[in-house]
Write a structure and sequence with these properties.
- This protein is α/β, with parallel strands linked by helices.
- It folds into two domains: 3-122, Response regulator (Rossmann fold, 3-Layer(aba) Sandwich), CATH 3.40.50; 125-220, Winged helix-like DNA-binding domain superfamily/Winged helix DNA-binding domain (Arc Repressor Mutant, subunit A), CATH 1.10.10.10.
- Helices cover 44% and strands 22% of the residues.
- The chain has eight helices and twelve strands.
- The chain has helices at residues 11-23, 34-43, 60-70, 84-92, 105-124, 154-165, 173-181, 190-203, and strands spanning 3-7, 27-31, 48-52, 75-79, 97-100, 128-131, 134-137, 142-145, 148-149, 171-172, 210-213, 217-220.
- The strands form three sheets. Strands 2-1-3-4-5 form a five-stranded parallel β-sheet, with helices on both faces.
- It is globular.
Length: 222
């Protein structure tokens, strides 16, 4: 079972999530604002964090950035706004999932299960692969380019590791959304293109390993 951090300034929402989470056997810690959430992460280890965007003292986006500096924790973001820009910005700073209020607590529990399972599975991989000067350390969740660590968001790591584990296999954008994000994305599939663009930028001269398949999607070519 998972240890869940719930960061939301609405007590009723925290109470509902806690009720469903504890019913499924999870442990819950609550935070009423972004600053409190960061302090919780400093003091405890969590399997996943559910973070609202609009919170006092420190908003959800800023809280997520600070949490990422402290620990590699999967993050599901909550928001009353469902605009594509908000979702894409969230994914760009490294969140793992995004839900729009009002939401189904049962669906949130399902997404928590997927995110935690995916994160634990990635951590359990025992592969360290080398492609010339590109070294991909899956258990350490680290990528080195000619000996220097690359700086990537957690979702970029997830996407790269997935493509590398399935190297030379072609994937459509829809397949990548389903397998890497774990659910059907609300909107179009441009979020995959956005993450591929950022990933290629971070890979530098090794960007050519990620091949675009016109009219379909992408693959990692070894």
């Amino acid at each position: 079972m998972a240890h869940i951090l719930i960061a939301d300034d609405e007590p009723k929402i925290r109470a509902v999530i806690r009720e469903y989470a504890e019913f499924e056997g999870h442990t819950v810690t609550e935070a009423a604002d972004g600053m409190q959430a960061i302090e919780c992460v400093r003091q405890e280890d969590f399997d996943v964090a559910v973070v609202d965007i609009m919170m006092p003292r420190l908003d959800g986006y800023s809280a997520c950035k600070e949490i990422r500096k402290l620990k590699d924790i999967p993050i599901i973001m909550l928001s009353a706004r469902g605009e594509e820009y908000d979702k894409l910005f969230g994914f760009e700073i490294g969140i793992d999932d995004y839900m729009v209020k009002p939401f189904s607590p049962k669906e949130l529990m399902a997404r928590i299960k997927v995110v935690v399972s995916r994160h634990q599975g990635a951590a359990g991989q025992q592969d360290i692969l080398e492609f010339g000067g590109l070294v991909i350390d899956m258990p350490g969740r680290q990528v080195k380019i000619d000996g220097e660590p690359a700086k990537m968001t957690p979702k970029e790591y997830d996407l790269l590791f997935y493509l590398v584990r399935n190297k030379n296999i072609a994937f459509s954008r829809e397949q990548l959304l389903q397998d890497v994000w774990g659910y059907d994305f609300f909107g179009d599939d441009r979020t995959v293109d956005t993450h591929i663009k950022m990933l290629r930028s971070n890979l530098g001269k090794y960007r050519s390993h990620i091949v675009t398949l016109r009219g379909m999607g992408y693959k990692f070519e070894a």
